[in-house]
């Protein structure tokens, strides 16, 4: 694994084996804090090897890392401490760790141990064997998109099931390598960006999200320099990298899978990137669009690479009025939606009407998912969990869409969930 710092300069290099050894050593240090099995440890996210060491160390120690997004700017930091204190107060967490510049934001008065990553690494070792972790144990608690106070709790078995399914659809093998700049507090950034290449034993380069924000062209440039074959991002990120492109030589011919997702995306933004970098060898067929959400670990449906983008063009008036996706007539307004491929192996998706019954193709409805990769629930929020996860294992995604030729099309989100 390679971690790039400012300007794309290499900040650190390690191997997956070395990372595992260091994480196990650090797990023995964390256990000196008297951890209970399944205890939550709040980790403020940082793009760097130290954060990943601690993330995996929590799991080796039998604890559960609860990820906290880090503030990125001075103004945001000043308003971050109070909501962070409220979140931790209701989380049951007694141990919280942060990068050294941000440790002062932790509410030390309400925690048994609030420290920097460096201080955690200096703890004394605790002897004895590390606990055995099973597929039903929690792997992590990820922030929930658009909501505060109850993160998404994922079990090891769910994460592994989704990784296997995604890897199978993408035909990931030992000849691939990966690069990611996505924030590690998101399911896409952590699971697709780090855990997928780890599970497949791939070479991985990690770029801080802030470096991409400063210069979006660093993404394709590092893809070219590293020869990476896998990377993903939202359509807006591809558009930024195309809008700010600088003159220079890129060789993107090895970029085999350009993941696009996971919610509704703009086909035009992705097409702009493909056109801009076509001369550099980027192939439009590399796009692999998918739909997913943290509550389903990562992906629900995914279009295999090689076919590129598929856009379903419909009459927006008929879709809004009748809930049916039909092609537009001559000289009628048209709206294009990306197809997100069929459901992953082992995943079942139903498009349901207001009466809860499955709808036929091209009928607009609410998306429900049953999958071996569903969350255990929202952390310490049983009412919110019960609203979206039924007793028979169906997740109400809150998304609205339809099917075409077995592929999923996402139109937007419902107001109520």
Describe the structure.
The strands form six sheets. Strands 2-1-10-9 form a four-stranded mixed sheet, with helices on both faces. A four-stranded parallel sheet has the order 4-3-5-6. Strands 11-12-13-14 form a four-stranded mixed sheet. It has 417 residues and is of the alpha/beta class. Helix 10 links the parallel strand 11 and strand 12. The chain is 29% helix and 23% strand. The chain folds into two domains: 132 residues, Rossmann fold (3-Layer(aba) Sandwich), CATH 3.40.50; 258 residues, ANL, N-terminal domain (Rossmann fold, 3-Layer(aba) Sandwich), CATH 3.40.50. The chain contains 13 helices and 21 strands.
List the topology elements.
Blueprint: E1 2-4, E2 10-13, H1 16-30, E3 40-44, H2 49-60, E4 64-68, H3 74-78, H4 81-89, E5 95-98, E6 113-116, H5 117-121, E7 138-142, E8 152-155, H6 156-170, E9 177-180, H7 187-200, E10 203-206, H8 209-214, H9 218-226, E11 230-233, H10 235-243, E12 257-260, H11 267-276, E13 287-291, E14 301-302, E15 311-314, H12 316-322, E16 335-338, E17 348-352, E18 365-370, E19 377-378, H13 382-388, E20 395-404, E21 407-413
Parallel strand pairs: 1-10, 3-4, 3-5, 5-6, 9-10, 11-12, 12-13
Antiparallel strand pairs: 1-2, 7-8, 8-19, 13-14, 15-16, 17-18, 18-20, 20-21
Keywords:
alpha/beta; 23% strand; 417 residues; 13 helices; 2 domains; four-stranded parallel β-sheet; four-stranded mixed β-sheet; Rossmann fold
CATH C-level class of the largest domain is Alpha Beta
Looking at the overall shape, the CATH architecture of the largest domain is 3-Layer(aba) Sandwich
- Number of contiguous helices: 13
Order of strands across the widest beta sheet?
A: 2-1-10-9
CATH level 3 topology of the largest domain:
Rossmann fold
Task: Name the average pLDDT.
Answer: 90
**Tally of DSSP β-strands:** 21
The radius of gyration over CA amounts to 22 Å
| Poorly predicted residue ranges | none
Overall geometric form: globular
Overall structural class, as computed from helix and strand content, comes to alpha/beta
CATH homologous superfamily heading of the largest domain: ANL, N-terminal domain
Which percent bin holds the helix content?
25-40%
Termini Cα gap: 39 Å
Share in β-strands = 15-25%
